[in-house]
Amino acid sequence: MPVMKGLLAPQNTFLDTIANHFDGTHSNFLLGNAQGRHGYPIVYCSDGFCELTGFVRTEVMQKNCACRFLHGDESSERAIAQVDKALESQQEYQGEVRFYQKNGSPFWCLLDIVPIKNEKGEVVLFLFSFKDVSDSYGKSQHNSVSDAAHQSAKNNRTHFSQAHERGRTAFSHLTSLFTKRGKGKLSNSVFQKPSLPEYKVAAVKKSHFILLHYSVSKALWDWLILLATFYVAVTVPYDDSSHAVSRGAAGSDIAVEMLFILDIVLNFRTTYVSQSGQVVYDAHSIFLHYCNTWFFVDLIAALPFDLLYAFNITVASLVHLLKTVRLLRLLRLLQKLDRYSQYSAVVLTLLMSVFALLAHWMACVWYVIGRQEIESSDPVTWDIGWLQELGKRLDTPYINSTSGGPSTASAYIASLYFTLSSLTSVGFGNVCANTDAEKIFSICIMLMGALMHAVVFGNVTAIIQRMYSRRSLYHTRMKDLKDFIRVHRLPQQLKQRMLEYFQATWSVNNGINANELLHDFPDELRADIAMHLNKDILQLPVFEHASRGCLRSLSLHIKTSFCAPGEYLIRQGDALQANHFVCSGSLEVLKDSMVLAILGKGDLIGADLPGNDQVIKTNADVKALTYCDLQYISVKALREVLRMYPEYGRRFSADIHHNLTYNLRDGSELDVRGKCTCLCTNAHTHTHTHTHTHTHTRTRTRTSLALAPMRISTHTLFHTHTHTHTQQFCIWVDRVSWCAIPRLQNIRTRSPHSDPLRRRAV
């Protein structure tokens, strides 16, 4: 029994795990790279952290995870040193730090630093958790700065510690969620260090005694249940028409009911494929899914009515009709038909079986009509019914309307013979309708037979082509793909990647080529459809100033793609073909096996466009961690659209730096480095240049400067006063590292009076 296996590739769900477990407590966290030789750049920050600090993600990415850009005049030097020591030694840290938001507002923060290890035990990331506790003790701590009020400060610190213990419950809740403790190990877990999430390919979490829905054993079981369903569909109408159940038949019915009950139990422990194509192994999710789908139908069909016969309980005749609820089990057959649809022979066999089953049901009704004619004692019709005629021909006439007559088997065979000949329109007349009731029923059978004959025997091919054309196309392409793999003798790993990519992309678009489908539509309508389909990427800030005509042109060039876990979207050194927008899933940016950035939903990855049409070479690898849905626009198409709208093209070139989560253009670091050197040289050539050294970081770049030609040990603030301009310019240069993250971006020049960080520094 072929079934859809679902998406089985292992995924690195570290980012999703962290985000999900922070929900309900606080979602203010960021991740820093722990493998940098100098500095620990930020590779991911949550939306909650951006809301807490006022910075946007593009301003935070690639800065040092020590968060010196959040420090101010009243930040503790001791706390700063402890954070640096914890990062260097790769140890955990808990403490209270006074941070400053982007607008200069201070707040007290409960900071937790936890090193994250991979499957090899190496520390690869730092998890920073931020808890705003300003409401608890911010004012008291801020006022305790006088040496004369030592006792008051001591009391405040006591209150501070109490608030700290209350605030740490959130992070303790997070770590406890990552630890699975048994009830019998409660005493031991108190003294054990809670386990932490690891940055690695997640192992499939399977509950105990879970049955795979695509396994061979489950397929055999489904075949057994299918046969039992047909048995019920045959025996229930027969028993209801004859009103007699043998002891052996009652035993077989009980056995079938036990099979149905056991099937219900197994369905509670059988995996299923979710709407996203993922295989669900969690027992609780399986329980809810089954209860919301087929549980009640299966439960009603499995009610053990035959136990009434087994215990010799006398029941009324209407109770026999309760057994017809077992026919609800046939609804499951409709679900199975979808699995058989790829095989035309199986579909034809099932249709023939349904035809025969309908004939069986009609035969049972035909027998009941004959019995009713005999038992009615109507002097006009009781002697001319088809059962009376059959008894006379077999020399077993009815006596006193109750005794005698043909055997039940002979009567059933004659009934089935009549219904089949009527349904197929080849009746011979040796069994015919004589009474009015029999003639009316015969007319209904003939009408039904004409329909069934046309459906089953006349239009089987047309029905299959019409109902299963999409599925036939799927299996045709799958067969072509397998033939291609076999002819070219591709290795098993490459074969698996090809098959899974094909299945995953088919599940997303169902084999529909949007370009071909919309090709015949008018350009106006096609552009509106494209804008609706690509509205997420068109809502990026970089397209905010684009005209509607420009957006419509861009939308026609946007394509969708899919990436499986472990697949490389971009390789270092390759020519960049497109800028990608992450719709779902997560990816990582790698260089020399070092994580440079983690990309999630809403991130833009690509490069800025140089002035000429030179080929853009990439400076890092981009690898998928989970199943990712992406939208992309090719560099060639983007350049064509920008040429048509030159006024927006200039704005796009200036804004793209601030919207790229990571710039993949090889050499972008050198461009910005040259600008930095030029600005610094010009600043020193003026006579009115003043240099002030501060102990706190003042970073106003979009991201941290990396791979600089030199390491600046002090954080220098240049105040440049020119002779010809009254406006003052200042350049903030963050502490940079040559070997940390190759992420060189633009340096902004600002007026010191318009910048809150500048005002606070002065």
Structural class computed from helices and strand pairing:
alpha+beta
Tell me which CATH architecture of the largest domain applies here.
Sandwich
Number of domains: 6
Low-confidence region ranges:
138-194, 672-762
What does this structure look like?
The chain has about 750 residues and is of the alpha+beta class. It folds into six domains: about 15-130 and about 170-190, Beta-Lactamase; about 200-330, no CATH class; about 345-465, Helix Hairpins (Orthogonal Bundle), CATH 1.10.287; about 470-510; about 515-665, Jelly Rolls, CATH 2.60.120.10; about 670-760, no CATH class. Helix content is about 45%, strand content about 15%. The protein has 29 helices and 21 strands. The strands form six sheets. It has a five-stranded antiparallel β-sheet, sandwiched between helices. Strands 10-17-12-15-18 form a five-stranded mixed β-sheet. Strands 11-16-13-14 form a four-stranded antiparallel β-sheet, with no helix packed on it. Helix 9 (about 215-240) runs parallel beside helix 15 (about 345-375), helix 15 crosses helix 17 and helix 15 runs antiparallel to helix 18 (about 435-460). The radius of gyration is 38 Å and the shape is elongated.
